[in-house]
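User: Can you predict the 3D structure for this chain?
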Amino acid sequence: MRVRSSMLSLALVCLGSLLASQAQASEETRLIDSINAYRNQSQACANQASLELPPLASDPRLVLSATSMGDLQQQLARVAYPMVNVQAISLSGPRDAAAAMQAIRESFCQVVLDPQFVDIGVSREDREWRIVVARPLLSARLGDWQSEGRNLLEAINTARAQSRQCGSQQMSATTPLSWNDTLAGAAQGHSRAMANQNFFDHVDRDGRTPGDRAELAGYSGTRIAENIAAGLDSPRKVIDGWLASPGHCANLMNPQLRELGAAYATDPKSDAGIYWTALFGTP
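Assistant: Here is the predicted structure, written as structure tokens:
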């Protein structure tokens, strides 16, 4: 009987440890979800309005000790994360994900709203938190901008063929988009401008909007919309990010939009390395 009692106690202790571990992990997951929800809407940060951004992807290699700081670059080298840019946020005191998110909004909004970062890892030890955001080296072998733009079109049309939820909006399956060379030229020009001039915005350095750029390129359509992305090295990653972002997803699924031109451009001196533009139109 004593043996059985001891085994039962051990089982209960193990179960308690497992439940505690799961609860802790869920708080870390909740914080990532909160950060991504925060990125999915325009925010007032550092006296500027941010763009709606795709979610960060959870990467276990970025889950580093919350209490043992050390050299961040060396730690990522040990776990074979091929980072280009990385930044870590350390918080001391938040008891849960909601409190940690409040601290991030108040003091670190520029870090989590930086479009160059695409991956995230969160660790927690009691009330110590560490949030690591990073951008990896570009690893995909891309074709020229026209071929990858058409690959983006194909992926978008595959997405449009199925009904889906874009945030709180239910979007029905709709007709495929057709390629438009004029829109593609305008998209390539904007991607190149973002890469070479190191910015990420729908409004370019000359103050032109997507509609302005389409008109200047010679497009005479009645409706224009634009999605942009940064730091992602394949059309599949770009589409996945846009589909997970309510506003970008709604553009992809909009049945009133009929044509598309898309392109990417790279510049190793820029923050994000690679920039994508998808310019939608209605003839």
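Residues 47 and 110 are 11 Å apart (CA to CA). The longest strand covers residues 83-92.
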